[in-house]
Specification:
Blueprint lengths: L6 H24 L4 E7 L2 E2 L4 E9 L17 E15 L2 E14 L3 E5 L3 E4 L2 E4 L3 E5 L11 E6 L20 E7 L3 E3 L4 E9 L3 E8 L6 E6 L6 E7 L2 E15 L3 E5 L3 E7 L19 E7 L3 E6 L10 E5 L1 E8 L3 E3 L4 E11 L15 E3 L3 E9 L2 E14 L3 E5 L2 E7 L4 E7 L2 E6 L44 H30 L1 H25 L3 H20 L11 H7 L4 H19 L6 H21 L3
Length: about 625
Amino acid sequence: MISASGPGAVRLACLAISLGASLAGATGAWAQDVSAYAYTDPARARPGDLFSVIVNVSGVQSLEEWPAAPDLSPHASYRGSSSSTSFQMSGGVTMMSVEVRFRYQAIREGTFEIGSLQMRAGGQALSTDPVEFSVLAQAAPPSSGSAAGPGAAGGQPAVGAAPGGDGEGLPELFMLAEPARTQVLVNEPVLLEYRLFTRRDVDSYNFTDLPPYTGFWVEELDLAGPLQVERVQRGGIQYASAVVRRTVLFPTSTGRKTLEPLSMEARVKDSSNPFGGLGSFGSSLFSRTAPVGVATPPVEIDVLPLPEAGRPPDFTGLVGDLAVAAELDRDSVAANEAVTLTVRVQGRGNMRGLPAPSINFPATVEAFPPETSETLIGGERGLSGSRRFEFVLVPREPGLITIPAVQMGYYDPDADEYRVARAPASRLVVTGGAAGAAGGGEGRTRTSIETLRDDIRFISLQTGRFRGPGDSPVGGAVLWAALLAPAAVVAGAAGLRRRRDRLGADRAAHRDRRASRRARQRLARAHALIKETDSRGCFAEASAALEGFAADKLDVAVAGLVRSKLPDQLRGRGASGATTDRFVALLEECDRQRFAPGTPGTSRQQDVLRDCRKVLSDLERETRR
């Protein structure tokens, strides 16, 4: 046995103890059991609220097979996913775990079960126990009060917080669907406004789930200019309020109709931020935001039938106002020649759903289905404007023909009676012989292409080129090209070698030049996967194309990309803020579709690939060295 003493021996002993502790910790980490469980955060929610289904897998650093997002429809809609890995040392043992978080927005009240989630980690097949979740009934909004006056939103898509009142127990953010009327006739327009109320500063918002509007014809109205913000009293508390969506509904059948909730996710500024008061609208330098989900309570509308008494035979179903005009493009025409009857209808109501007028043309006139064009503007009382119907008519026999009057019935809700819009009859003089009397081509119309006869192919009158017995088969130009081709090949190879040497010396420039080509190749593979119905593979290739392009442009490894720093890095290369935001949004969309339940349609995959090509083209142009 060898003994030692002194400071060197003490240091050696300490090193041995540390090494032993490290080995013990590593042994403890590998000895940790692999298990998985699921839970929700929070435990329950109301329609519009955001919640998460969280899967925790302990004892591993990564998963071999990831769990799929559970389908919670019709009670909740999927919003996205994220994952994280954590390490913790306790008593010399390293504890590891992976957390997968699926985000949802509650839609419909009810209690339901989130089924078992399957995954694979540490060489084992794992599953979680089912979890029960409840979506509570929608909370009643505060009672309405008087408005304190409108004000422009300062050109920003944001709503500022309303001062005044403590608001204890009242929601800080909610949204209502406000129809202009709750009792209408079939096909009578009703204006529906979605109004947001807030006592917090709203930085931005987006609609996450639109109602199906079952039983209604829907026309969206544009919100002209910035949001118009006004101060209103609700339950004795002052709110900032603005209309964030406006539609016109046309009920298509009678009965009580229920408008399902519309869901929104708003980015609300953090009230605990000490610098949050620097700006009430839009983003500020120091503002921090958090997502908040809201949904409108269901709204019921009673749809009454139109009266039976007095309904005209030519009733179009329109409820509103109509005016009709009709004219022929010519007063006289030869038999079997075409003439156009144009019917212009101006009015107000469900003009887009207005059918073509029914006209009983004479038996000697052949009429073709009309071509339709329209110029319509949406408003609070429906669609106003005009529709144009062009009928192509071909008279087959000569004589004086009368085109009947055009009649279109409608219901006037202001006068509470049926009315008929009329255009007077038109007369047309048809000259020439009757159809078939002239024979040959006189009886043909211009409505189609008809093969009259088939001719034989023309005989070529030019002779080919002949060569004499003593002529050389190779011309002068061909001979010189054959002689110079080897020298051109050698010169091209030398130039290509010099170019490769130059690119090898500047690796960053080389990666920058090949970024677009490699991204296009990946997008081509993604497009091929659409035909193989591999949607997850398609979005994985699209995500790889975007990440690979960014890595080549920034001269970093793909594994070294940090999502949070990526926008600043791209802007540092010269990319605009708008292009950078589109790039990051497409990355998130690809990740969302990879883990989302169900299979996205072919059109959705094609749209994402088209957007990827466009944003990559814009980035290539803006970041070109």
